[in-house]
Amino acid sequence: MHDNNLIDSHQDSAPWWRDAVIYQVYIRSFADGNGDGMGDIDGIRSKLPYLRDLGVDAIWINPWYPSPQADAGYDVADFRDIEPRFGTLDDADQLIAEAHEHGIRVIPDLVPNHTSDQHEWFQAALAAGPGSPERARYIFRPGRGPDGSEPPNNWNSCFGGPAWTRVSEPDGSPGEWYLHLFAPQQPDLNWAHREVREEFEAILRFWFDRGIDGFRIDVAHGLIKDTDLPDVVAPQGSGYVYPAGQHPHWDRDEVHEIYRRWRRIADEYPGHRKFVAEAWADTPQRLANYVRADGLHTAFNFDFLQATWKAERLREVIDTTTSSLNAVSAPATWVLSNHDVPRHATRYGRPPVDWVPGQNYRADGETDLELGTRRARAAALLMLSLPGGAYIYQGEELGLPEVENLPEELLQDPVWERSGHTERGRDGCRVPIPWSGEKPPFGFSPANATADPWLPQPDSWEDLTAEVQTGDPGSMLELYRSALRLRREHPALGEGDLAWNDAGEGVLSFTRTPGFACVVNLSGKAQRLPEHDRVLLTSGELDDEMLPPDTAVWLSL
Ligand code: ISL
């Protein structure tokens, strides 16, 4: 078993994951080592010093397994290997070792809800025909209607269109249908099947044995389906909410049995391995079920990500998050952006509307990017001073906006095709990172690259490269670096409690002990700072003792 270094030497200290800052590496777009226009493991290795200097505790890497990339790697063909475009298993081993030497933990992404249609299990299921043990690992059913030409039920794919695709049987006749809650190239596994469970337990061990520090669990709320496969009674968006645990395919109570077993496996390994659930639940209490002491350790806090830039809304989310998680003794996580949502510098520059998953992937409306960026700076100080852990999506530390004008012919997200070209999809937040230089590929690919970046970078990103921001005290990058440094040093930050202060309408003000306060001004007019000893950090210039609108400050008391 992997033993190293800095990371393992801390194995007996407090569980690191309770207040870790985890940086999301969207591997396709982070750094391209081999010059093929797509990011890779060598690219990540070359940026480890950058990540160490930024001051993050861990990286979560989006799926890096062999995949036809029908959904940017979330269609996994082999869970025990590395996509050749990204490198090899040896490269992964080396990355894990080097990251640990830099004090950075490594968290790959596990995709248990579905496989690629190119996975050997699915290919065997197609070849074996109806009623076979091979088909039992997936969800195959005969169609409805006299000739079976209608899908088995009315479920829809998250990417648009029906969640069922009909196959041709080995003899060429029109045959059964299989379920795919996402793209047709992502058939859902049958988690009622013992072999599926055993396979994933073995996959967990395969990677834990290689020294990884945890997993992000994709669609953690979706694995269990009602075995009767009943129609969904009300379409999404109609306002109807199923009684807790009774939706036919989301957030069913039986899913937690799976995670109880996984937790026991993680706990067998030294050094605090951890899970983070990508789970969508109707209420904070339902979400808290995923992070009970015998379940997954943490879950992304999408309520925070979805909240509009309004003090009352944010305070409500902060309070419901902390109270629901305190009830199960789990730490909160805070997240502003990821590879599925429009970047928050853009979101915050729009009229306030709550972002709805799956509905408005498209970034509608006029954007005031200067305003959005000012708010994004304030939001960073808010997020990084709240109790618990936080996620940073690559590029947010550079203040990258959503790229809203990618040419249609270059769009790659399956959402674009599946929605009949009504939703542009998520490519606008996935554009490769600008590292240096004055024109594309901005150091993303090496000088001798053989291809352009897989999505084009705007020329205007010349002003947003890591290189130009380094050392500029007014830059987003230096704000993140300072905030992360202070967060490490200050005893009040990380896990713990907060106490709200009575501040004016539209102002978030809280104290953390010992001796720390954060004030965020969302009120539209300048606010007097509360009594303090010293200003530690501000997201924008103070006007004497006044905090301007859309600005946050950290104070020493
Ligand atoms: O289920 C949803 C809403 O209830 C969706 O928001 C869903 O959880 C989300 O789209 C899942 O995303 C993850 O799995 C997808 C992949 O395309 C995304 O990139 C990934 O983050 C399929 O694997």
From TrEMBL:
Tagged with keyword Glycoprotein: yes
List residues of the Glycosyl hydrolase family 13 catalytic domain. Answer: 24-430
The protein's matches in CDD domains, at most eight in alphabetical order, are given as: AmyAc_OligoGlu_TS
Q: Which Gene3D superfamilies match?
A: Glycosidases, Oligo-1,6-glucosidase, Domain 2
Q: What protein family does this chain belong to? A: Belongs to the glycosyl hydrolase 13 family.
Mind telling me which PANTHER family this protein's record contains?
ALPHA-AMYLASE FAMILY MEMBER, NEUTRAL AND BASIC AMINO ACID TRANSPORT PROTEIN RBAT
From the Swiss-Prot or TrEMBL record, give the protein name: Glycoside hydrolase family 13 protein
The organism named in the record is Saccharopolyspora aridisoli
List the lineage, top down. Bacteria, Bacillati, Actinomycetota, Actinomycetes, Pseudonocardiales
